[in-house]
Design a protein that fits this description.
The protein has about 425 residues and is α/β, with parallel strands linked by helices. Helix content is about 40%, strand content about 15%. The chain contains 18 helices and 13 strands. The strands form two sheets. Strands 3-2-1-4-5-6-7 form a seven-stranded mixed β-sheet. A six-stranded parallel β-sheet has the order 10-9-8-11-12-13, sandwiched between helices. Helix 7 links the parallel strand 4 and strand 5. The chain is globular. The two termini are about 20 Å apart.
Length: about 425
């Protein structure tokens, strides 16, 4: 299909935020998986696909290895783990946020490369965080100077719909840049639920948003740790041995509803201590009380466990040994833990929200966020692990990257045909 489409000479794929932070969760997991497959995409479509990052206000090219080998500083990571255990929650969050701001202010890429020179109608495809680090301001300059086309990957618009779920300036920054609808030429997103939400935004605040070209692609479900061994943390093996393990994966933040799940398990543990809850995810925002509740729980490190810095190999081990995965979000743009659990044929217990119905279909057992007993019942009646021939079709990361570029080219051609040029 790529051969019949008109193509730009180059697609420049922004991965600025992931490069500077070295993270591998949420958006950063997607970015890494897409960048890892750009070589295959180049061969498939015959288009130069270049990872780029911002350096002093200008884009520079990097190799995929520059990004994939980029990891959080291990010393900083160890200090974070230690401080999260020793400091009171509020003091830990203050130190964490201060470090984050200073890090981004003074971070300098180790890559040595000349500023990017684009050609007219080349595509800049932003698949990373777009509301930070001056990405949109830089693209404005590139559009004026080179006449590039700008496509924006929007994972969700939760900062616009539920700003109360954020403490920092994220909602204001998100709105500031997303409302500049004249800058981006088209939107790519990850679910039909997202499309509906985007199209329903106010035309006054987001001019012509309902007419903005938009396409949907699916995220991948397969986890392939870089270290392909069977090694895993012995502590995890002791936790899961001869136990019914229920797994939550995702950043600690209000919309993930960790407190709701904790309340359900506290009721379960009053009568049944055979079940364990493992929470995996980095410490996010507005979760000080949740973090304190976990650490002060009489079940902590007995039936309740938390890991904030788990690598893919250990996460894969937990998926394989889980009785079920719980996804309890109030709202999502997609839901990677849902499809990752499906990849491992693990039963899923999911909050009954639109996007989980769209992505998961009949696979999960759904519960109501307004009825804690419905979650308790779902946990107590968890289905047996699925067999391979029962699992529904899933998107691999190879397919996901292919879909992303294919949808990008379709949008590009639609714009050229509509405008007689872009």
């Amino acid at each position: 299909m790529g051969d019949v489409l008109k193509k730009p000479k180059s697609i420049f794929v922004d991965c600025t935020a992931t490069y500077y932070t070295g993270l591998n969760t949420g958006i950063q997991r997607v970015v890494r998986n897409i960048i890892a497959r750009l070589d295959n995409i180049e061969q498939l479509y015959g288009i130069k696909c270049v990872p780029v990052i911002l350096k002093e206000g200008q884009f520079i090219a990097i190799s995929k290895e520059d990004l994939l080998n980029k990891k959080p500083n291990q010393t900083v990571l160890k200090v974070k783990v230690l401080l999260s255990k020793l400091l009171p929650s509020k003091l830990y969050f203050f130190a964490k946020n201060l470090y984050g701001k200073l890090f981004l202010m003074f971070a300098k890429p180790s890559v040595k490369s000349e500023p990017l020179k684009a050609q007219k109608e080349d595509i800049i495809l932003v698949i990373d965080v777009f509301w930070e680090l001056g990405v949109i301001d830089a693209i404005k300059s590139y559009k004026q100077k080179y006449g590039v086309v700008f496509f924006l990957l929007v994972y969700d618009i939760i900062p616009l719909l539920f700003p109360q779920y954020y403490r920092d300036q994220t909602p204001k920054k998100f709105k500031k840049y997303f409302s500049q609808t004249d800058i981006y030429d088209a939107i790519i997103t990850t679910s039909k639920a997202n499309v509906s939400q985007i199209k329903s935004l106010s035309e006054k605040e987001f001019p012509n948003i309902s007419k903005k070209p938009i396409a949907v692609f699916s995220l991948g479900s397969d986890i392939k740790p870089l270290n392909q061994t069977n090694n895993h943390d012995e502590q995890l093996e002791l936790i899961v041995k001869d136990s019914k393990v229920f797994l939550m994966v995702g950043t600690l933040e209000p919309r993930k509803n960790h407190d709701f799940v904790l309340s359900a398990f506290e009721k379960i543990w009053e009568k049944d201590l055979s079940k364990k809850l493992i929470i995996v995810g980095r410490i996010g925002w507005l979760c000080e009380n949740t973090l304190k509740r976990i650490k002060l729980s009489k079940y902590y490190n007995k039936n309740l466990f938390m890991f904030n810095f788990l690598n893919d190999e250990n996460l894969s081990y937990l998926y394989k040994n889980a009785t079920a995965v719980i996804v309890a979000s109030s709202i999502e743009g997609f839901g990677l833990p849902l499809v990752e659990a499906m990849y491992y044929n693990v039963p899923v217990i999911a909050s009954d929200i639109e996007v989980f119905r769209e992505i998961g279909g009949a696979y999960p057992t759904y519960f109501s966020l307004s009825n804690i007993d419905s979650l308790i019942d779902a946990v107590n009646q968890a289905k047996p692990k699925m067999t391979k021939n029962q699992a529904i079709n899933l998107t691999s990361w190879d397919d996901s990257a292919n879909q992303l570029i294919n949808k990008t080219l379709i949008l590009y051609n639609d714009l050229k045909n509509k405008n007689g040029g872009i």
